[in-house]
Amino acid sequence: MTELLKSVLIANRGEIALRVIRACKELGIKSILAYSEGDRDSLPVKLADQAVCIGPANAAKSYNSPELLVSAAMAFKADAVHPGYGFLSEKANFVKMLEEENIGFVGPTSEHIAQMGDKIQAKRIARAAGVPTVPGSDGVVSEPDEAFQIAKETGFPLLIKAAAGGGGRGMRVVESEDTLERDLTEIMSEAKTAFNDPSVYIERYLTDIRHIEVQVIADGMNAIALGERDCTSQRRNQKLIEEAPSPVIDDELRSGLQEAAINLCKEVKYRNAGTIEFVFDNVENKYYFIEMNTRIQVEHPVTEMVTGVDLIKEQLRIASGIPLSFSQDEISIRGHAIECRINAEDPNEDFAPRPGKIEKYRAPGGFGVRMDTHIETGYTIPPFYDSMVGKLICWAETRDEAIARTLRALDELTVDGVITTGPFQAMLLDSEEFRSGHFNTGYVAKLLESKSELPTDQ
Ligand code: ADP
Ligand code: ADP
Ligand code: MG
Fold first, then answer.
1. Pocket test for ligand 1, best of 175, 279, 280, 439 (most atoms within 8 A of CB)
2. Which of 203, 251, 200 is nearest to 227 (CA)?
3. Which helix (H) or strand (E) is 178 found in, with range?
4. For residues 244 and 225, what is the distance between their CA atoms, to the nearest angstrom?
5. In a mutational test of the pocket of ligand 1, which residue from 237, 291, 299, 443 has the highest number of ligand atoms less than 8 Å from its CB?
6. Is CATH 3.40.30.10 the classification given to domain 135-204?
7. Is the CB–ligand 2 distance for residue 59 below 6 Å?
8. What is the DSSP letter of 347?
9. Whose CA is nearest to atom 20 of ligand 1?
């Protein structure tokens, strides 16, 4: 029988580092946390079996340095590296370096990352697997003439997207042909600066959509779909609230989505956890593949709550070479789960980050309430990283009960000393649109326009 990894180096910080440490502990795997000077006093450093400072707070010289992380993994003789999300989690060159040193990676192969990290190539693979994609260019568009040609098929508005984009960045909506040439040039140079790759492509811009994604877990032989997550609550293409299951996906649509996701994984013999993202057109009731994320995602807990599968443990088992221990038939969706991202930001200052010292933290609790966070009373949120400080995940039998429970838990949550988006999230959950289940990716922006002042906890 294949044995579990003995030790894992965690190349991340914050709540996801803690999430991985916890899974390692439960499996008896030694957790080694690689942290920066900016995170010296953080909870993950206290709870990991071992912790090593790899560099200064500046992520370029710590969390984002492949060389430093590979040396740390070698020095501490880690069997594998867990990258979390963000940072090096989708950097093919980093994974290649690990492969060359014979260090495991809790994720897919460097080849999978390279294939799927390029959104143009990912769309090609999807098409080859028979998965519908958003109408648009076949490949890279670099000349205005090509753009005008494609615009004839997509119509306006259209969307120019960076092949290497991510995190809601590297996208521009073009309203008419008047600005097409200028927009193309500008977004290409922005993409070059931000992602070191000027390649862009064009898609029809769908105006009444939901974001639906399928969680997959695969061992190279088999791929299993764990239902969908609905991440339609977004601001500037960034997710705010995620839920599972989606309030608009019925069994028939779900089977179609899951089959598409599994076919895509089989096309490349995918291994480990992944997410296949789709936009769902409310008008035509059709879904289209947009991209694949080859890592664990921020919102993975909602899937865990409705399936009972611990995704991080599964990732660790697969990285150990252990085949999936369950089949598609054994997966069923029970109840409803909602996740709110809690960011240290001021909603009234255009969501500007508000790092600082937490004078008092009180966690919400009770049946069906899960708070994934690294914050505690007295902790100082460093200004160097993402402003997400935790995730509140609530489960209940029905969507209405899950909303009531999340509102109750948000009310209990106390983070004194900094401003958080907790009360703003409560406002979204309590809105008519969210409660009805019928909304699109534009509802948050509309709601924001209608309010002169947003609720905060300060
Ligand atoms: P990222 O890599 O930044 O996550 P995605 O391609 O996943 O980028 O798109 C992020 C979000 O942008 C989607 O969730 C959706 O809200 C919006 N989006 C992407 N493609 C389209 C499209 N063709 N039409 C309308 N909205 C889109
Ligand atoms: P998803 O996992 O749903 O696609 P995002 O694209 O918002 O969500 O998540 C990836 C982003 O998370 C990265 O681009 C980065 O900005 C941010 N990130 C990376 N590491 C952390 C962390 N430890 N805590 C919070 N946010 C992080
Ligand atoms: Mg995406």
1. 279
2. 251
3. none
4. 13
5. 237
6. no
7. no
8. G
9. 290
Amino acid identity of residue 62, one-letter, is: S
Q: What is the pLDDT of residue 458?
A: 80
Cβ–ligand 2 distance for 14 under 6 Å, the answer yes
Catalytic site residue 295?
yes
Per-residue model confidence (pLDDT) at position 168: 84
Q: What are the domain boundaries of the chain?
A: 7-106, 135-204, 209-449
Binding site membership of 12 for ligand 2 (Cβ less than 6 Å) = yes
Per-10-residue mean pLDDT of the chain, 458 residues long, equals: 95 98 98 98 98 98 98 98 98 98 98 96 96 96 97 97 92 97 97 96 97 97 97 96 98 98 97 98 96 98 98 98 96 98 98 98 98 98 98 98 98 98 98 98 97 93
Ligand 2 within 6 A of CB of 386: yes
* Residue 301 in contact with ligand 2 by CB distance below 6 A: no
- Please give the class, per CATH, of domain 209-449: alpha beta
Q: How far is CA 369 from the centre of its chain?
A: 21
Please tell me what DSSP assigns to residue 332: -
| CA nearest to 262, candidates 327, 197, 181, 345 | 327
Q: What number of other Cβ atoms are within 10 A of residue 28's Cβ? A: 8
207 CA: nearest ligand 1 atom: 25
Catalytic residue among 13, 19, 172, 295: 295
The CA distance from 428 to 241, in Å, is: 9
CATH code for the structural domain at 7-106 = 3.40.50.20
> Residue 320: what pLDDT?
98
Which tokens sit at 457?
């906890």
What's the pLDDT at 315?
98
Q: What pLDDT sits at residue 130? A: 95
Question: By the 8 A CB rule, do 113 and 92 touch?
Answer: yes
The pLDDT of residue 167 is 84
Separation of 85 CA from ligand 2 center, angstroms?
A: 6
Per-residue pLDDT of 362-395, as tens digits, reads: 999 999 999 999 999 999 999 999 999 999 999 9
Cα separation, 231 vs 271, whole angstroms: 24
Protein residue closest via CA to atom 2 of ligand 1: 166
Render pLDDT for 199-236 as a digit per residue (tens, 0 to 9): 999 999 999 999 999 999 999 999 999 999 999 999 99
Per-residue confidence (pLDDT) for residue 437, from 0 to 100: 98
Ligand closest to the CA atom of residue 273: 2
Q: In angstroms, what is the span from residue 166 Cα to ligand 2's centroid? A: 10
Ligand nearest to the CA of 298: 2
